[in-house]
Amino acid sequence: MKIATYNVNGVNGRLPVLLRWLAETAPDVVCLQELKAPQDKFPLEAITGAGYNAIWHGQKSWNGVAILARSNYEIKELRKGLPGDPDDEHSRYIEAFINGIVIGCLYLPNGNPAPGPKLDYKLRWFERLTSHASGLLAHGIPTIITGDYNVMPTELDVYKPERWLDDALFRPEVRLAFKNLVDQGWTDAIRKLYPTEVIYTFFDYFRNAYGRNAGLRIDHFLLSPHVADRLQSAGVDRNVRGWEKTSDHCPVWIEIEESIK
């Protein structure tokens, strides 16, 4: 079973890229972030035509998350929105049950400029995520929490880390929040299989970042123990970042041993 995450940076504007990637790689489940589309503007017809069912949580102009699954998989929506703050109107989290697995798709706040209110919101969001993740682990159901975390966990995950020390994606308190989450018992899929390799999932549009391999690893798969034991492979579709009119993120994927449907 192949599961992918992809920050599309505008689902309608990047739709040809998304459809091409789906056709070429055929993942079973896809988590999308940064739809930048209100609920009624999600391109469901095109997604269905590509062979996928979908649930989504849209928002005008920014944010927005979605989960796609091939038509032979049923998607049971569990929640839209992260619990813990009824006043938070950002569309940043959606959760579903697919083929025996709970899958949470997230777009964690950027937090810049830092310090300031945006960083404070990011850290509060991290606290809510950590609390919710703890509850998911307690249920003992195979669970994956994936998406754009907007954090580079270690210096290995960022090109020239000394330039990012004051950025909200790399500040110590943000990295600590990610570590506290993982330390609950989650497995970082990429680092389990590639503990020492330089792997990036994001390349800025400026300064030829993609061509220079000057990237960041900010798109992550966290696996509960019951999924981590089934992990077979993982990777980044880096070539997609080189396509015309593409996102600044690359698709990231894992393959796990199939469960009984």
TrEMBL record:
EC number: 3.1.11.2
Gene3D superfamilies to which the protein is assigned, alphabetical: Endonuclease/exonuclease/phosphatase
Annotated site residue numbers, Important for catalytic activity: D219
GO molecular function: DNA binding; double-stranded DNA 3'-5' DNA exonuclease activity; endonuclease activity; metal ion binding
Superkingdom field: Bacteria
Magnesium as UniProt keyword: yes
Annotated site location: Transition state stabilizer: N150
Gene Ontology terms: biological process: DNA repair
InterPro entries xrefs: AP_endonuc_1, AP_endonuclease_F1_BS, AP_endonuclease_F1_CS, Endo/exonu/phosph_ase_sf, Endo/exonuclease/phosphatase, ExoIII-like
Group of enzyme by EC: hydrolase
Active site: Y107, D148 (proton donor/acceptor), H249 (proton acceptor)
Chain positions of site Interaction with DNA substrate: H249
Cofactor note: Probably binds two magnesium or manganese ions per subunit.
Annotated ranges, domain Endonuclease/exonuclease/phosphatase: 4-249
Residues that, per the record, bind Mg(2+): N7, E34, D148, N150, D248, H249
Names of required cofactors: Mn(2+); Mg(2+)
CDD domains per record: ExoIII-like_AP-endo
Keywords of the record: Hydrolase, Magnesium, Manganese, Metal-binding
Sequence similarity: Belongs to the DNA repair enzymes AP/ExoA family.
Name of the protein: Exodeoxyribonuclease III
Organism: Mucilaginibacter ginsenosidivorax
